[in-house]
Amino acid sequence: MKVFKFGGASVKDADSVKNMTSIIEANISDQLVVIVSAMGKMTNAFEAVLQKLIDEEDHTEALQYIKDFHFGIISDLGLSGNQQLHQEINTDFETIDNELARFSSSMGYDFIYDQTVSFGEIFSSRIVAAYLGTRQIKTTWLDARKMVKTDNIHRQALVDWGATQNIIRSQVSQHTDSSVVLTQGFIGSNAKFNTTTLGREGSDFSAAIFATSLNAESVTIWKDVPGVLNADPKKFPDTVLFDQLPYKEAAEMTYYGASVIHPKTIKPLAQKGIPLYVKSFENPHANGTLINECVIPNLAPAIIHKGKQTVISFKISDFSFINEQHIHLIFEHINRNHLTINLMQNSAISFTICIDDNPIKREQLRMALKDDFLIYYNEGLEMITIKNYNQATIDSLMWGKQIIIEQRSRNNFQMVYKF
Ligand code: ASP
Ligand code: MG
């Protein structure tokens, strides 16, 4: 059995849905479990609806945009006459309306987010399933909210592996002999059956969850890039495609911010030795990148760029030195706010962290620690990590930048800078 994951760009319009269908058709002799993300930029569009709600502005138009987008694709795919599809999607929109109407600030943004934004994946999978039907591909549509069980941390839910694996095995296996199983990435539910989500771009991780639960032969992530490149082609000229990468290298690249694969994807696959292919949906016959257990000497330097960074420095007000107790206290509050540190550095009188820009959490952290430390912060910075660096790459990337933090180990070079 193979798991295929198609992201937003591969289902962004009718033509891309048709292209995805051809890829499925070409692989129909394998047992296939297909995971889809929301179409195009629909997750962002849902976030825009919620922003209106938070700002107490009218969200009708923002929601109408989402409706028009999906019904536009339905019509372009020739599915306008599909009564069942229309009914399902209209019912989903009623659910969304009800969720938005019952929103109160005590409910929490993260909760309402999961109850509504998750429909991006539901719509996408319903439309794709209906279209596969018109192409005589027997498809079983399954609801990932009923299979991926998580805790209660909305928008960043942690998977309950035991429960999830049992459900996936019992729900999916029975259908893969006779049909393509189609389900959604990104979404799941907690013990109370409230919808949860796994974090932005989490559909790759969903593919890994399904693949490991089903002991799949491989996972393929179909993308709008030829595979894993050594740098973002939108930011750097002359990129190199990795033909093959060890799990460890790929996992570390995602940790440092390479957005080609969701960071949580590699670990479960590596633990089971399931190979991961990253391939171009525009050029499905090209090899792409194979990530597996291997040793590759002299890997090209990988340049990973991460924007929207905040550097926060904690200093002791009476000029005593930073000690372990201070660091312990800082970490306690970082953990309490579910913040992730991208880089850290300490000196005699200060401890510095770099995190993703998040003014709300930064403020919570500052309020919690302001009596113990003098706190300075700097937002809107950028970070570059070079894995397997060489001096020439460092020199060319540092040129002309105002460096705020610089750090190197044997394999990695990192810098945070103003631009
Ligand atoms: N649709 C979700 C997002 O855009 C999940 C995904 O694409 O993987 O973040
Ligand atoms: Mg996406």
TrEMBL record:
Enzyme Commission no: 2.7.2.4
The protein's superkingdom reads Bacteria
UniProt GO cellular component terms: cytosol
Gene3D superfamilies xrefs: Acetylglutamate kinase-like, Aspartokinase, catalytic domain
Q: Which Pfam families match?
A: AA_kinase
Keyword set includes Electron transport: no
Q: Which is a GO BP term held by this UniProt record?
A: lysine biosynthetic process via diaminopimelate
- Reaction(s) this enzyme catalyzes, per UniProt: L-aspartate + ATP = 4-phospho-L-aspartate + ADP
| Pathway(s) per entry | Amino-acid biosynthesis; L-threonine biosynthesis; L-threonine from L-aspartate: step 1/5; Amino-acid biosynthesis; L-lysine biosynthesis via DAP pathway; (S)-tetrahydrodipicolinate from L-aspartate: step 1/4; Amino-acid biosynthesis; L-methionine biosynthesis via de novo pathway; L-homoserine from L-aspartate: step 1/3
What are the record keywords, sorted? Amino-acid biosynthesis, ATP-binding, Kinase, Nucleotide-binding, Transferase
Q: Where is the Aspartate/glutamate/uridylate kinase domain?
A: 2-280
GO MF annotations, alphabetized: aspartate kinase activity; ATP binding
Keyword Nucleotide-binding recorded: yes
Q: Which family does it belong to?
A: Belongs to the aspartokinase family.
Identify this protein by name.
Aspartokinase
